[in-house]
Structure of Permease:
Amino acid sequence: MTIIARALGFIFVIGLGYTLKAKGIVRREDSTIFSSLVMNITLSTSLLVASATAQVSIDLYVPFILGILCNLFLDMVGYWEAKKSGQQTSVGLMQLSGYNIGTFTLPFVQAFFPLSSLLSVIVFDAGNAIMVLGGNYSIAASVDEEQERMTVATFIKNLSRSVPLVVYLVSLSLAVCSIKLPRELISALTIASNANPFLAMLMLGILLDLKLSWKEISRLAYLLSLRLGANILIAGVIYFLLPIDKTMKIMLLVCLVSPISVMSPIYALKLGSRSAEPANVNSLSILVSLVMMVLLIFLFV
């Protein structure tokens, strides 16, 4: 009953964000404020708090590598679909790639799973962030001769500017070195950390856009089914074939049902997209991920 109440609570907060936007109380543009708060403050404090109880094992290289490989596989799926349907291949590759771990998955893990299990998610997202913050774009630009290539310097600059990624690395380093932050500091950070699920879900509700025609929905459903199918295939390999701890397997499955990265439509626009499709598929992926996440919670919690 507690799990159901929490899951419904998350859905309610997303609905609240959408309603506030629909009523004109907040604008879609205001989501940038929430995004800044979540990415730079509440998410970062959640990671530091998680490092206090994290147990490091040698298997942690697995989530990091998978964070990169899963993105590469989705890049291949997006490229194949775009080429088959006659779309711009760089945009097609970009719009299905990446995982929104920080503002979607981490709040769920924080609310429903032991805090110590966050480390697998953190390490997966460290690999994912490398692709989301420039890796996927670099690959997409390389398949389109008209696009400007991202230089190594720009790529590294993007990574260094990502506050969550820097905090990921700090948190991981603390856990690996068995360095514990002072209890008083953890207590203070927990105040901001506890606000992360609410702010993240409210922001997702504000970003959600459901004004679509049936024709658009049909196309978007097809794209999302490709992404979902690819992730289910990866999930099967992870769950049944990888010789890793079951808790880590579950956390990796949770990562795989994450929505498309919020950076994907931004980079798609930079690649020359003139369609609302990347933004719309991103919005609908939130709804699909919400259903899948709740299903996983009922299966494994």
